[in-house]
Write a structure and sequence with these properties.
Protein name: L-rhamnose-binding lectin CSL3 isoform X2
Distance between the termini: 15 Å
Order of helices and strands: EEHHE
Organism: Danio rerio
CATH topology: Jelly Rolls
Strand content: 15-25%
Number of domains: 1
CATH superfamily: Rhamnose-binding lectin domain (RBL)
Number of strands: 3
Strand order of the largest sheet: 2-1-3
Number of helices: 2
CATH class: Mainly Beta
């Protein structure tokens, strides 16, 4: 939780950009690691305008940028007034 200054979102992606994060084993199919939801930063910024944030990492929230690929939400954030 950030102090009164609130949360600042620097970057966010819902999708997959690597082949190791959040995998279930055994993994037997090719992963699409060029999977990004273009509206992620906007959704996260609007949803996390405060001192704390709870947001579901799901297709219902971000749509499905790459059908059949397991996705995760990665957010780079900080507290307003503090350097990263």
């Amino acid at each position: 939780m950030c102090p009164m200054s609130g949360i600042v979102i620097f970057d966010a992606n819902y999708g997959r950009t690597d082949n190791t994060t959040c995998l279930r084993r055994p993994h037997r199919r090719h992963l699409n690691t060029n999977c990004t939801s273009p509206n992620t930063l906007d959704i996260v910024t609007k949803s996390c305008a405060g001192r704390h944030c709870i947001l579901a990492a799901s297709n219902d929230v971000f749509s499905d940028p790459c059908i059949g690929t397991r996705k995760y939400l990665k957010v780079v954030f900080g507290c307003a007034g503090y350097d990263r």
